[in-house]
């Protein structure tokens, strides 16, 4: 099962690379066309905006899985094991709540977004805003799995140390400042 999950997230990383690359190419070509030939590709402007939305929200799920979001290690580092576990449980419960609200809000807006079309490409706007369903569900599942492990005592000392920022090298800490 873990291998399947790892492959899924590897596919998401490839998707992120593809979205960023295509977005950069479209913007570059459009800039060259505008300045050199006084024209442009209108589809590229719209699609690059949509790709950026997808890049942001898919990237948020990948970053959450890799513990890449911002944390307050300075505060958490002062706590002992129990305090850190409590912080881990509270932060994931808060993330679960926010992700569930995000999913539910996207679900409620589904019919409205599905009925609207993009001005240039004429695609349904659910293809743009529907990413909230993926992001909300993905982050909720990750937070639920973590909460289950934390509450059943299946958390490792390495995970607790990582949560407090104790696993970072000097170079990694310097990157964060």
TrEMBL record:
Q: How does it sit in the membrane?
A: Multi-pass membrane protein
Can you cite a GO biological process for this protein?
C4-dicarboxylate transport
State a single Pfam family of this protein.
DctQ
Q: Which InterPro entries match?
A: DctQ, TRAP_DctQ
User: What main location does UniProt list?
Assistant: membrane
User: Which stretches make up the Tripartite ATP-independent periplasmic transporters DctQ component domain?
Assistant: 23-151
Could you state a single Gene Ontology molecular function term?
transmembrane transporter activity
What GO cellular-component annotations does this UniProt entry give? plasma membrane
Q: Which residues cross the membrane?
A: 12-35, 47-64, 85-106, 126-144
Its localization reads: Cell inner membrane
**Keywords of this entry:** Cell inner membrane, Cell membrane, Membrane, Transmembrane, Transmembrane helix, Transport
* Coiled coil (UniProt feature): none
Q: Which family does it belong to?
A: Belongs to the TRAP transporter small permease family.
Q: What is the purpose of this protein? A: Part of the tripartite ATP-independent periplasmic (TRAP) transport system.
Q: Oligomeric state and partners?
A: The complex comprises the extracytoplasmic solute receptor protein and the two transmembrane proteins.
**This protein is called what?**
TRAP transporter small permease protein
Instruction: Give the organism, scientific name.
Output: Neorhizobium alkalisoli
């Amino acid at each position: 099962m873990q291998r399947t999950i790892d492959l899924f997230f590897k596919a998401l990383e490839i998707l992120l690379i593809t979205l960023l690359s295509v977005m950069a190419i479209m913007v570059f070509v459009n800039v060259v066309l505008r300045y050199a030939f006084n024209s442009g590709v209108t589809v590229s402007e719209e699609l690059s905006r949509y790709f950026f939305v997808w890049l942001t929200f898919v990237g948020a799920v990948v970053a959450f899985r890799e513990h890449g979001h911002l944390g307050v290690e300075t505060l958490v580092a002062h706590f002992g094991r129990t305090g850190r576990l409590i912080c881990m449980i509270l932060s994931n419960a808060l993330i679960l709540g926010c992700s569930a609200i995000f999913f539910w809000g996207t679900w409620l807006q589904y019919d409205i977004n599905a009925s609207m079309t993009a001005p240039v490409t004429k695609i349904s706007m659910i293809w743009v805003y529907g990413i909230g369903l993926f992001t909300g569900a993905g982050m909720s599942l990750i937070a639920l799995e973590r909460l289950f492990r934390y509450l059943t005592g299946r958390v490792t000392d390495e995970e607790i140390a990582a949560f407090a920022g104790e696993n970072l090298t000097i170079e990694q800490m310097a990157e964060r400042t």
